[in-house]
Amino acid sequence: MSFQVALSGLNAASTDLQVTSNNIANANTAGFKSSRAEFADVFSGEATGIGAGVRLTDVRQEFTQGNVEITERQLDLAISGNGFFIVNDGGGLLYSRVGAFGLDQTGFVENAEGERLQVYPAQAAGGFNTGTLTDLQITTETSPPNPSTAVDMNINLPADAVAPAVAPFDFNDPQTYNHSTSTVVYDSLGVAHTATYYFVETGGAWEVNQTIDGTLVGTPQPFTFDSAGQIATPANGQLSFPGFDPGNGAAPVALNLDLSATTQFGSNFVVNTINPDGRAAGRLRAIEIDQTGIIFARFSNGESLPLGKIALANFSNPEGLAKVSDTSFQETFTSGVAQRGEATESNFGLIQSGALEASNVDLTEQLVNMITSQRLFQANAQVISTMDTVTQTIINIR
C-alpha cells in the first residue's frame, strides 16, 4: 500500500513541476496567466484513518493583472482591469487578454493566430450598435472631399469708418473698399479656391462683396449694426451669394456668409476667426484608439472617422474558462455566459493603446515552488526506496 501512496506523491510532484515549468517558460509571454496545481488527499475508508495518497483536483488559472508595458505601437492593446478581448477564429468566439494585433492583407485587425478582433460597428447617425459584433477592418480608402457651403466669420469693423472716397467698388482698387479678408474653400472635387470678402462702409451701414479666385460673385450684400455694435440686419446675420462655376467639372460653389458674431466697435479692423466648412480629399495618416475602445481613422484633411468600438467580455467565473491555445480561452458551463460590455463602463477596465499586458508570472514565487516540488519528489522517491529496503528485508527472513 505504501508503494501506491508514494507513487501518487511522485505523480503529484511531477505535475506540480510541470505546471511550474510552464509558468516559467511563459514568463515573457504577453497576456499569459499563470496556473496553480491544486491537490487533495485520497481517503482510503479504513478504520485507522490512514489516507491512500494524493490526487490532482484542478489546475487553476490565476487571472490577476499583469504589468502594462509601453510599446508605442498603435495596434498593441492592453486592458487595465476586468475584461477580455473578443476574437473570431472563423468558427466561433474566443476570449483573450493578449492585445498584440496587426493587419492582414485586406485590412482586418487580427492576432498572430489569425483571430479577428471584434468591435461594435459605428452607426451612420452616430454612436455604436452594441447589439452586434463585427470584424474590425481598417479602411485604406481616401476620405472623400466635402464641398464648402458656409463661411463663419467673427470680425470687428471700426465704428468710426467712413465711406471710401472712390466709387464704384472695384476689388482691384483698394481705395474703393475699407477692409478685406480671405479664406480657402473647396469645391465638390476637393479643389481649393480662394474666397475674398471686401467690406465697404456706405454711410451708417455696410455691404460686403465676394470674389472667388479673382472673379466677382453676385452683388453686394448689405448689413447693419445696432447701437450696441451687434448685427441688426439681417437678423440672423446670414448673407447668401450665388454659385461660382470653378470650370473644372465640379458643382458650383455657393457660399453662405455667417456674420452673426461680427461686431462694430470703436477699435481697429480685427479678424478674430474665419472658419469655412468643407475639406479636400484626405489620405489615411494614423489609427488612434482611446481608453473607451473607440477606433478613429485620422486623415490628412483633418477628418476623423470612427470605425467601431472594441467589445469586451467578462464572466461570472473566469477561472472556469477552458484554455484552447495561444493564451485564448473558450466559454464553458462553469465560466458562465459571456457578459459583453464596453471599456470603462460597469465593471470593465479601460483600454490602453500602444501597450501590452505582460505575463502575471512571479518568477521568484515560481522558483520557490520549483524547489519545493523538487524536494517533494525526492522525499516520495525516498519513501519508495525505504519500502523497497523493508520489503527486501522481509523477503530475506529465513
What features would you describe in this structure?
The chain is mainly β and 398 residues long. It folds into three domains: 2-64 and 360-395, no CATH class; 70-142 and 290-357, no CATH class; 150-276, Sandwich (Tick-borne Encephalitis virus Glycoprotein, domain 1). The protein has helices spanning 2-25, 363-395, and strands at 35-41, 54-61, 68-70, 77-80, 84-88, 93-96, 102-103, 109-110, 116-121, 134-135, 150-156, 179-186, 192-201, 206-212, 215-225, 231-233, 238-240, 256-258, 270-276, 284-289, 294-299, 304-314, 322-325, 328-330, 339-342, 350-353, 355-357. Strand 13 (192-201) and strand 14 form a beta hairpin. The model has no long low-confidence stretch (mean pLDDT 90).
What keywords describe this structure?
398 residues, mainly beta, Tick-borne Encephalitis virus Glycoprotein, domain 1, 3 domains, ten-stranded antiparallel β-sheet, five-stranded antiparallel β-sheet, 2 helices, 14% helix
Task: Spell out the blueprint of helices and strands.
Elements: H1 2-25, E1 35-41, E2 54-61, E3 68-70, E4 77-80, E5 84-88, E6 93-96, E7 102-103, E8 109-110, E9 116-121, E10 134-135, E11 150-156, E12 179-186, E13 192-201, E14 206-212, E15 215-225, E16 231-233, E17 238-240, E18 256-258, E19 270-276, E20 284-289, E21 294-299, E22 304-314, E23 322-325, E24 328-330, E25 339-342, E26 350-353, E27 355-357, H2 363-395
Parallel strand pairs: 11-18
Antiparallel strand pairs: 1-2, 3-27, 4-26, 5-6, 5-9, 5-22, 6-24, 7-8, 9-10, 9-22, 11-19, 12-13, 13-14, 14-15, 15-16, 17-18, 20-21, 21-22, 22-25, 23-24
Helix pairs in contact: 1-2
